[in-house]
Design brief:
The complex is a heterodimer of chains A (280) and B (392). Chain A has 280 residues and is α+β, with helices and mostly antiparallel strands. Chain A is built from 10 helices and 14 strands. Chain B has 392 residues and is an alpha+beta fold. In chain B, α2 packs across α3 and α2 crosses α5. Classes of the chains: A alpha+beta (280), B alpha+beta (392). At the A-B interface, β1, α1, β2, α2 and β3 of A face β4, α3, α4, α9 and α10 of B.
Chain lengths: 280, 392
């Protein structure tokens, strides 16, 4: 199908975007790469009155080295990360994730910030950036605030963004050389949305042992202390054999995840992530 | 209408177009370049793949206006390109095509593979081809053709990689950088009146049989008789549901109503008929509803059963079981779990509003407001409501 008619403006700056976003009398949507919004527009599920293209705002394609973290603009694409145009301070974690999102033509336009704002629970960045402990930098004319990515996504297609806010970028902590990670997503076909995601990150130099269970049809489960998933054990090479299925079941209960398929896949996704993390 | 300027296969092209015009339609209908095919129109099948600023992208989900000042290469634009010529010959030689519908996209992706992965093995080729669907060949001939082309291209000089900056391919700063001041209000579109549902011919047995079932339960700190009395008034109950309102009074247990739900970029406005049956002795009731979305040809039918139980004299447990069937684009889009997640959010707000109404407090947001799921979850009351929740 073809989209319904809408107005389109390309914002030249953040303040320009803000004045466009403040327009009343209709439904206004921000447009980054459009790789999730485009299909919804074509299917006429989304029928905005105005699209604001934010990809020309300089801050949104900036990459700033903040010492212990890297701040990437919201309109950095998946392929920018996959190809290494964004410096890899993350032991290859983000490059692996980026390279397995959808298909190359989609990755050439789809953006990190767009994916977060769209908040499809099955998308990769919500889980991967929560695992690594990244913060979203939210901008509005009222000021700038940061929100942990795990708190940005509230539930399916629902974020903590206010109506006048946009995601300016993402602050991603750099991993130490000793960091080990695993990230596994269940897909029946390369490039499709994940059926379940498991992620494990151990960075002893920074005292980090985190885990994520994502693509569970609602916001991911993020553990800043992953030990309860492994019977209270600290990270070691045998971690994959100590997965506590009951602990996972309780966490899924807490999110009201009742789908048997997801409940079956979750411990396996986590185990495969743990195997990758402990083998690397 | 927007004026755009693109370079198409090396030729400057100016046009004035509607913002909603996707690049593939611009190429086919305005530029008469019909090698690029339209398949799924949502980025999955790969038939529409073209090069934008030298790298592959989906022209069915790239608006022409968003690619203003970009360089586009379609299959018509590869004369003299050694990689594409080699691939074309290899596709012909290895039965890499049959009907030819997917072939333009296949060749684009194949060229991307031989450019970026000169040492690609079969697994890599199949991975990279996952975004191009072919219904004829079974892919074997296509994979062989790419393998053969890789061997032949080994002897040739290395293929140049596209030079690119950060950000979506084809996105360029505006030619004129201008700051906008306060902008005027949008005119908005009038919502079409939804075609009315013939309630009496709905096949409710099919919904019982095939419907998706959701169960919710929550406790409110009020005696059962109070809660039941409240539930007896369909108008009261409707006002607790965010975005919902009755548009006609209840007559003979039946009323017309509408409910608007905003979920990310989707705004749905369902209009339809509700029918209520109550069993006062058992504190149980059934609401049947059927409605259509005024913005998309989607429809929804639901059977909602509710019960009020009394765990103790001063509180009531409200149980709600919903069986529903969605049809139309909304159903195509929805994965089962997402609908459940939305229903969970709706129930939370409903419970919060119900409690407020029973306490005699005014509702902050009952005035036929749209459910903005985000606003719900952000609300300060949310944590308190969550503590009331019981899993079913």
């Amino acid at each position: 199908m073809k989209p319904v008619a809408f107005d389109y403006e390309r914002a030249a700056s953040l303040s320009d975007a803000a004045s466009l976003l403040a327009r009343t009398g209709g439904f206004v949507k921000l447009l980054a790469g459009g790789q999730s919004l485009g299909p919804m527009l074509n299917l006429r599920l989304a029928q905005p009155d105005l699209l604001i293209d934010i990809t020309s705002i300089p801050e949104l394609t900036a990459i700033i080295d903040g010492g212990d973290h890297l701040e990437i603009g919201a309109c950095v694409t998946h392929s920018d990360i996959e190809d290494g145009r964004v410096p890899d301070h993350f032991g290859g974690l983000l490059r692996q994730v980026a390279g397995r999102i959808a298909y190359r033509p989609v990755r050439n336009r789809g953006t990190v910030g767009g994916s977060l704002a769209h908040a499809d629970p099955a998308a990769d960045w919500i889980s991967a950036l929560s695992l690594i402990g990244a913060d979203a930098v939210l901008w509005s004319q009222r000021g700038v605030r940061t929100v942990a990515v795990e708190n940005l996504v509230v539930s399916s297609f629902t974020t903590a963004l206010a109506a006048d806010e946009l995601i300016r970028g993402v602050r991603i902590p750099k991993l130490s050389p000793a960091a080990r990670w695993g990230f596994f997503k269940f897909s029946q076909k390369a490039g499709e949305f994940a059926h379940t995601i498991g992620g494990v990150l151990h960075d002893p130099a920074r005292g980090v042992f985190r885990a994520v269970l994502g693509a569970i049809e609602t916001a991911p489960i993020v553990l800043a202390d992953a030990r309860p998933l492994f019977g209270g054990s600290a990270f070691d090479s045998g971690i994959a054999n100590r997965i506590d299925r009951e602990a996972i079941a309780r966490l899924l209960d807490g999110k009201n995840v009742t789908d048997d398929y997801i409940r079956s896949l979750a411990p396996v996704a986590l185990k495969r992530a743990a195997i990758q993390a402990s083998a690397s | 209408m927007k004026a755009v300027s693109l370079v198409i296969n090396g030729k400057q092209s100016e046009a004035t177009i509607e913002p909603r015009l996707n690049l593939v339609d611009f190429l086919r209908d305005h530029c008469e370049l019909t090698a690029t095919h339209i398949g799924c129109e949502h980025g999955v099948c790969g038939a529409c793949t073209v090069l934008i600023d030298g790298v592959p992208a989906r022209s069915c989900i790239t608006f022409t206006v968003a690619a203003d000042r970009a360089a586009i290469t379609t299959l018509e634009g590869f004369a003299g390109d050694p990689a594409m010529n080699t691939l074309r010959e290899a596709f012909a030689e290895h039965h890499g095509l049959q009907c030819g519908f997917c072939t333009p996209g296949m060749l684009m992706t194949a060229r991307d593979i031989v450019t970026r992965f000169p040492d690609a093995d079969e697994k890599r080729i199949r991975m990279e081809l996952a975004g191009n669907l072919c219904r004829c060949t079974g892919y074997v001939g296509i994979v062989k053709a790419i393998q053969d082309a890789l061997v032949k291209l080994k002897a040739a000089p290395a293929l140049p990689q596209a030079v690119r900056g950060i950000g979506p391919a084809g996105s360029h700063p505006p030619a004129v950088h201008k700051e906008r001041g306060a902008a005027p209000a949008l005119s908005g579109r009038a919502m079409a009146a939804a075609s009315t549902e013939n309630f009496d011919v709905v096949d409710w047995a099919a919904i019982e049989r095939e419907g998706v079932e959701l169960q919710q339960s929550f406790v409110v700190p009020f005696p059962r008789a109070d809660v039941w009395r409240f539930f007896a008034d369909l108008g009261h109950v409707t006002r607790c549901m965010p975005g919902a309102r009755l548009t006609t009074p209840v007559q003979g247990g039946r009323a017309e109503g509408e409910v608007t739900v905003k979920l990310g970029p989707i705004v749905s406005a369902f209009q339809g008929v509700l029918d209520v049956a109550r069993d006062d002795a058992a504190f149980r009731g059934t609401v049947r509803g059927a409605g259509r979305d005024s913005r998309s040809p989607s429809s929804a039918r639901a059977i909602i059963r509710y019960s009020i139980d009394a765990p103790d004299v001063s509180s009531s447990q409200v149980g709600v079981t919903v069986k529903f069937l969605l049809s139309g684009p909304l159903a195509q889009f929805s994965r089962g779990g997402l609908v459940k997640d939305i229903a969970d959010q709706l129930t939370r707000v409903f419970a919060r509003n119900l409690e407020a109404r029973l306490s005699g407090k005014p509702l902050q947001d009952h005035q036929a407001q749209t459910l903005d799921a985000g606003a719900v979850a952000r609300s300060a009351l949310w944590a308190r409501i969550r503590s009331f929740f019981m899993r079913t």
